[in-house]
Amino acid sequence: MATKNNSLNSVQMDRRGTKCSVFLCHERPDANQPVIFNPDFFVERLKHEHPQTFLELVFSNITRLIDLPGDEFAQLTGESEPKVPSSSGFLRSLNFRKRKDKGVIFGAPLTEEGIAQIYQLIEYLSKNLHVEGLFRVPGHSLRQAALREMLDTAAEIDLETGDFHPNDVATLLKAYLGELPEPLLTHRHYHAHLKIGELTRFDEKGNKTKVPDKERQIEAFQLLFMLLPPTNRSLLKLLLDLLYHTARSQHTNKMSAINLATMFAPHIIWPKNVTASDLQGNIEKLNNGVAFLIRHSQKLFKAPVYIKEYARFFYTGSKTLQSNDDLNLSSGSKACSVTAVTAPSPSPSMRSIPGETSSTNSSRPSENQSYTESCLRELYKQVSSMPDSAKKKKLIRQFAKQPDGTSSAETRTPFIRRHWRSRSVGRVIKSKGLGGQIPSEKENGTLPSLPHSS
After folding, report:
1. Average pLDDT, the chain
2. Which H, E and C letters describe the chain, residue by residue?
3. What is the pLDDT of residue 354?
4. pLDDT band for position 9 (50/70/90)?
5. What are 132-141's pLDDT values in tens digits?
6. Among 217, 133, 135, 126, which Cα is nearest to 177's?
7. Mean pLDDT computed over 385-409
8. Confidence at residue 352, expressed as pLDDT on a 0 to 100 scale
9. Distance (Å, rounded) from C-alpha 421 to C-alpha 423?
10. Which of these ranges, 169-178, 218-227, 414-423, has the smallest mean pLDDT?
11. Can you give the pLDDT at residue 417?
């Protein structure tokens, strides 16, 4: 009996050391320092409680990073239908007939139930990453047909029995993605993916180079993935995580990130009903883009640090970065070879959004004003240290228009980046919803980073 009690106590002690993503507390927490385990908690809360504010924030930062013509931007925001390359009517008719015979899972729109079924394939493949030519070598057609039927009928599946080979499962996973009514990365995001792939660094004189700007690409993908439908984002995260670990085992399976991208790009990003010739030279861009997603998948599903800071400030008024993840991201942006201009993150105290106000605005006016002033002073130091250029002179002139750098939010218009097409899409990106950031044009190659609180 004593031995049994000691064993039970040992188990209980082990459980005490287990990390949990949910925190319950009956005490009233300090509003200034909330206990939050999920670093994106406030971002998700903002997304669900104030979707218009969230979308304005994300769209304004996407347009800061990439240039999308008015029609492509309207497609991204949903103001117009996606316009992507299409193929001949013959191929389209064949695919239509194929989709008419869709089952419960294959060929059906993406759902949480479908993801739960497909996760069985992903979980099994994650245990068989050593198989050479995984995702490249096709499986047995009869075994695939049997497994497909089991998935469509929601039958109980045990892939560990040895009845199916990893190549059967891998081929079926690609087939499932290829038969979705819309690519996993969506038609609306097609042009944005091409533009993100074109982001490159700038030299000391501000001239564009051919060196990819990985930091800005990661930031742009983080923003873009925040706009994906929840089911697409969930499955994409599972898939990229699987491919990431597959590529890490390339010494045994011979499948590098670019090899995997070549296999999966047609299934997750190519527009539906197209052939290679319809993409007019964009195949290499798309393949390289998917390879980038695979290599950096562990960073792409986190909100950018300034989005987290904005969301936290929106609800709590806190100016501090309260997670190691935020601090690492913020400090990491300084390592970029491109000159980084430090700008204050947008906050409710620095912008006016119709129909949405925060209680922190009225309760902390002096604190917010002091914070803004300190950020502007730090910003001026950063601009002053930039190499002499037309851009620097322009920024200095903009500072000169501010009385003592402590003007109110309404007079801080020089710091609001108005996109050249803002008049045509003003219904989506309101001028009052884009404040609080220094103009950061692609030619200047500047990246906004959050100021450290003193």
Report:
1. 74
2. CHHHHHHHHHHHHHHHCCCCCCCCCCCCCCCCCCCCCCCCHHHHHHHHHCHHHHHHHHHHHHHHHCCCCHHHHHHHHCCCCCCCCCCCHHHHHHHHHHHHCCCCCCCCCCCHHHHHHHHHHHHHHHCCCCCCCCCCCCCCHHHHHHHHHHHHCCCCCCHHHCCCCHHHHHHHHHHHHHCCCCCCCCCCCHHHHHHHCCCEEECCCCCEEEEECHHHHHHHHHHHHCCCCHHHHHHHHHHHHHHHHHHHCHHHHCCCHHHHHHHHHHHHCCCCCCCHHHHCCCHHHHHHHHHHHHHCCCCCCCCCHHHHHHHHHHHHCCCCCCCHHHHHHHHHHHHCCCCCEECCCCCHHHCCECCECCHHHHHCHHHHHHHHHHHHHHHHHHHHCCCCCHHHHHHHHHHHCCHHHCCCHHHCHHHCCCCCCCCCCCCCCCHHHCCCCCCCCCCCCCCEECCCCC
3. 39
4. low
5. 999 999 999 9
6. 135
7. 60
8. 35
9. 5
10. 414-423
11. 39
Contact 241, 297 (CB under 8 A): yes
**pTM (2 d.p.):** 0.64
Is the distance from CB of 154 to CB of 104 less than 8 angstroms? yes
For residue 26, how far is the Cα from the chain centroid? 35
273-315 pLDDT, tens per residue?
888 888 878 999 999 999 999 999 999 999 999 999 999 999 9
What is the mean pLDDT of the segment spanning 102-113?
87
